[in-house]
Structures are given as structure tokens and as C-alpha cells.
Amino acid sequence: FPLQPDSKFSQVQTVIVHHNLTEVKNLFDAPVQESQLLGRSLMKAYTMAVAQARYNYGPQVKELPQPLVVQCVQTDGQNFHFSVLQLHSTEVDCHRRNVYWSLPPLPLYEDCSYVQ
């Protein structure tokens, strides 16, 4: 977990993920689909939220005393994907549901070039 026990910053608020187009690939060189990018954001946010829950409440925590909220921003420098995960439980099969909100990827710009 990236936080040290004696750190004055003990809560993860936002996870920033760089999507490197030359490194993140599919098997057999198929292009990465938008649904895969959205799934990647979900997995990164969930992983960080579970790590934060274990950091806060111990490694055996199941249902959290209060929800943890982690934001995720994934970008390739041109497109940005924003999402939020609210973690209620680290158990997969639990009556308390974890909640995930997501926006579609947003392009920051269409073209980056010099125009006279």
C-alpha cells in the first residue's frame, strides 16, 4: 500500500492512472476497447479502496463501519475518464452493495497543431 503508517496524509482520495497507448495492449495486438478502459478504472479504484479499508480497519475487515470513497481519473493525455467508487464491504457476495459511478471518456481536445 503506498501510504506509510506515520504519514500525515493517511487517506487516498484520488487515483490517477496514465493509460499509455504503447504499453497497455490486448493479446494478439487487438485494439483496446473503451469498455476495457472503463473496466480498468473500476479495478484501479476498487483495488485502492480495498487497500485503504485494510489500512484503516485491519486485514480481516469485511463490512466497513463507514463507507470509503475513492475517485479515479484515467487519461492518455487527450481523453479523460472520471469515476467514483463507494466501498461498503470487501466481500464480493454481501447484502451491502458497493457503488460505482462513471462518466464516459471526455476528450480534452480534438487536434493539437499550429494554425496560422
Helix content: 10-25%
Our Rg estimate from Cα atoms comes to: 17 Å
Largest sheet: 5 strands, mixed
Structural class: alpha+beta
Report the span from N to C terminus.
49 Å
Secondary structure: number of strands: 5
Number of domains: 1
Overall, the morphology is: elongated
Residue stretches low in confidence (pLDDT < 50, at least 5 long) are none
Please count the helical segments. Answer: 1
Which H/E pattern describes the elements? EHEEEE
- Average the pLDDT over all residues and give the rounded result: 89
Beta-strand fraction estimate:
25-35%
Protein name: Large ribosomal subunit protein mL37
Pfam families: PDCD9
GO molecular function: structural constituent of ribosome
Organism: Homalodisca liturata
Any overview of this molecule?
One of its GO terms (biological process) is translation. It holds the Pfam family PDCD9. With about 120 residues, the protein is of the alpha+beta class. The chain has one domain (about 15-105). Helix content is about 20%, strand content about 30%. The protein has one helix and five strands. It has one helix at about 35-55, and strands spanning about 15-20, 65-75, 80-90, 100, 105. Strands 1, 2, 3, 4 and 5 form a five-stranded mixed β-sheet that branches. A hairpin with a 3-residue loop joins strand 2 (about 65-75) and strand 3 (about 80-90). The N and C termini lie far apart (about 50 Å). The mean pLDDT is about 90.
Please specify the SSE layout and strand pairing.
Elements: E1 14-18, H1 34-57, E2 63-75, E3 79-89, E4 99-102, E5 106-107
Parallel strand pairs: 1-2
Antiparallel strand pairs: 2-3, 3-4, 3-5
